[in-house]
């Protein structure tokens, strides 16, 4: 594995061998520094030789000039990451270990304070020592050497800033005995030799700084190697250097990470779709699917593919098939799929697993992870079995008992929040991708996981101005790494299409320390203004390619109608008098609850015929309701004779639902078109006579006419902005219908055209709305930039933490501009005791007051009942939290599932009064609240 047959200790002086790296205070066992560096370097050799995908290795090979040199630098950094522990500041932390080296004259110039010792953390000391070693021993230019210290200084997840490095320099040069630096140089020399990094290799780079992508990936590999080498189950503590080869081989055998994916797509697009997806007999792939696979098969360099097509054209299958082609062509080791919400991620996870069942050869094993904040509650992720193969997933549980070797697993080492991104296949919310552009600790692990994959972004149009700042920056990094990206959308505004391509192309250019060429900029402008639909646009280092697939036979004429808010219920009753399935989409939870209440109160429909879905259901209840919704209105659903679904925007994203007629709050045109994709989605012969053609009925807006500007309900204006709603109204004015796909691109283009003219009588309102939109957009963009990571051309890695770092549990509030909220868990209170909600299918109505703690199964079921309360809904935040903390039980703090959660105790009628707010909850309405002074 290594380039030396003997272990590291044989090449070191006696005093170097006495340096320590790890200490267990309970067992009083230690691990020598030489052994730990030996272990980490062996892990790095293994990662390079067997685990890193070819596409990622190529990034480093391009930097260093050959695979041999790249491998040597990777192993060198892993073998040197903790050299800063050979320092007085670190060694004195365990006096009995420090005493062993005192006789060698290793000390400090004077007695040091704890503050002075804290000013020299081992990462910073190691980084400074490397800088001196490069400059003084190998003649490096100072500025070039600056770019080589990040993998050592940042191996604990945060790159050191200039102040910390200066502090370490002062400590080394002024306070510490100079013999410490000699020991560190000894380690550098020996580790370089063991890595195969010759003096010639090193000195070839005297004036060449490392690019930011290389620094990021090297740091990610070092972090991974360090964590694995620090796992005492794999590498037991020992102050005596064991045989390197046997120790490392045994550890890696026990680790057993899957090898990179080896995709083997069929040679033709038709054959690929037949092999991977359940095409009905005699069916052929849609034109957009075939063109996506053919286009990706023709390109010579990785790039960004934008796939715009109507709902129901099989964009997901097209993306997965194209991803397999791209992965095979460019040596990618997996796929990352990013979606707007947890719900859409859960649905996609099932589809990806089914695809993997066929995409992974029988002789392969791959790891798959569901990566969002509630993945631990997804039963399919926890252990799903398919008829043809067994899929075992682990979060905190054992592998499912099955004698057959699984083809896909959630590997035990990859199950944590920090390492999940390193799995071969990941499905999660888009936040997980956007975190790669967020100033956050251990961001280098996200980059390491991303750089070797194909990335699929679903519903990419859903990103608002705030999220777009992170999206564009993350795409720059994808371009710099050469990550193939496939972005899906029913519709994209021209400016958004341009900025997505520009961001990726900018990343490609920055890798060459250049700007996007005028030729490519011109091609991007042409692509921006392309009016074809469906549309495939591909950008890479060679330029822009455009494909205009034929539309499938699913040409759909959707009639456009309007009604007042007060007429929705009566019109629903009339339209469904002979049966049929309708969906009503509201822009806010409150409007959905109010309208649901009005429909139920009208009496024209039974309780079983009306269904409400929104975000203020407990997580477990929402999951159950989504499953019920798909079971009734999905492709294979058992449809009721008559049914009404009242929902928020949940139904417009990724859920495969089919309705006969839709009522919708007025919204931007691209979202209305997206929602309309749930109309007549599947071929059915039993639709009621009056609902044979798809109809979209819009409400929440006054009559749209030339004579005066339309007005919109306040909730819609707050979410989408008046200007965008007015532009949509102008684009739709006079239309009685739209045809998909024929009219889609034109309507969206007109809506987002900032030069579009409005009727004269709208001018005053229009100008005010546009001015407000511009101000809000600038404010949001500026707000996002506070935590935005730097671009790939910024070689100073400390810029990643110039505003501090955000831990991931706070990260979502920084990659999304969402309301601040408090997460509570719903429980039932009987007297002074708390119980799980009585309607839970598993462990419902059980006591949570056991002094010995709540058992894991019950705690997990209770933890599924969380719900987020916006700050505005709870009155004073501090007072609200303080009041809920009174209901906390000591037994909760003993549970990993419940610790830190605030209980919202409902009485047996489902009501609760906290901090002047009355809450009520049931399975029909979800959570409702009213300030008690408002109810008087």
UniProtKB/TrEMBL annotation:
Pfam family, one: Cas3_C
Keywords for this protein: Antiviral defense, ATP-binding, Helicase, Hydrolase, Metal-binding, Nuclease, Nucleotide-binding
Molecular function GO terms recorded: ATP binding; hydrolase activity; metal ion binding; nuclease activity; RNA binding; RNA helicase activity
Stretches assigned to the HD Cas3-type domain: 26-228
Superkingdom of origin: Bacteria
Region (Disordered), start-end ranges: 773-795
Protein name per the record: CRISPR-associated helicase Cas3
Organism of origin: Corynebacterium amycolatum
Gene that this polypeptide is encoded by: cas3
